[in-house]
Amino acid sequence: MQYLKESTLLRIDEYRLADDILFVVDKTMIEPLNGILNQLQPGLCFKLNNPQGWLTYMDMELCKNRNGNIISRLARKSSTTYNYIKWFSFHPMYQKKGIVLGILKRIVKLCSVQYRWGDFNFYRKYFLLNGYPPNFIDKCWSQIKDSNWPPRVTSNFFVKLPYLGKNSEILKRKISDNNIGITMVGGKNVGPGLPSLYKSIPNLKQKETVYEIGCQDCSAIYIGETGRPLEKRIDEHRNALYRDDTEYSRVADHCIRFNHWPNFDNIKVRGHGKTKFERRIKEGILREIAGKNAINKVNPIIIKDQNLAFSHFVQFL
User: Fold this and answer.
1) Measured at the alpha carbon of residue 133, what is the angle toward residues 130 and 138, in degrees to the nearest 5?
2) C-alpha torsion 151→152→155→156, nearest 10
């Protein structure tokens, strides 16, 4: 674009969003500009397309009115189904409201004033077909059309909670603040109940795991984490037991002191984590749940950021 401005005498007004560029030039300069563009790269060929009235640019349609001003309205693609989340579906209310507000905001931001009411009625018809109450749609429009939107507050941390209906909505309002954001997730879908097309990875082959080793002779359990393949870490515990190395492995220490044997044939994977910090948080949670049965070393994990710890705790559960 800079080359065009410097190498030609054309007056070019440029409007850019990422890699989508809109040029505004004098009508008599369209063909000269097209010729210059085709000289820049031999492998590219730009062709002139003369739309009848409206020119589509991203989500808008642009046109020049009688006064020479550019007016706009929302583009309506023939492939759009207008199939939104149904009003009576089991989804959090903030998601349904967000769909309506998002589209209405696009109308206010992208449409010229004379086209806002028409586009609103167009989308209102499809909201009604998806079961949305008329008064709910009109209330959202009243909130949006004057452009008096409250400033958006972005939370530093987000916590996922299961969506259980109205009670979840009440809980979200009570615990939401500026530091912790709440997002609702649904329950299990039919996917886990269907057979997978991919082979499952055996526990001992998995990486980045939080694992549990039980004792065959008592209720003691060991909770650990590793970023390597789990079988390598289990081999280290087993070798420490054979060497009577009570310093290297708490599993070996417990078995040697009480003449017990670990249940190496039933290693449980209790969680996963991409980072060591995340795995240690989950390890600490499981150690707290196990209570006196845990035989880990007495080295509590110090968590400086309580909000982050709470976020990991809720997601893990």
Assistant:
1) 110
2) -80
Residues 163 and 97 in one domain: no
Q: Evaluate if pTM is beyond 0.70.
A: no
Query: Where do we find the tokens 């417990």?
Result: 254
Average pLDDT over residues 277-290: 86
Domain of residue 176 covers 157-187
Burial class (CB in 10 A: 0-12, 13-18, 19+), 96: buried
Q: Is 238 exposed, middle or buried (0-12, 13-18, 19+ CB in 10 A)?
A: middle
CATH number at 292 reads 3.40.1440
Report the residue count for the chain: 317
> What's the start-to-end Cα distance of the chain, in Å?
53
Tell whether 117 and 172 lie within a shared domain: no
d(C-alpha 240, C-alpha 222), whole Å: 14
CB neighbour list of residue 307: distance below 8 Å, 6 or more residues apart: 156, 157, 179, 180
**Separation CA 29–CA 293 (nearest Å):** 82
Whether 220 and 303 share a structural domain: yes
C-alpha 250: how far from its chain's center?
Answer: 39
Is residue 208 domain-resident?
A: yes
Cα gap 285→212, rounded to integer Å: 13
Asked if pLDDT for residue 177 goes beyond 70, the answer is no
User: 17 and 46 in one domain?
Assistant: yes
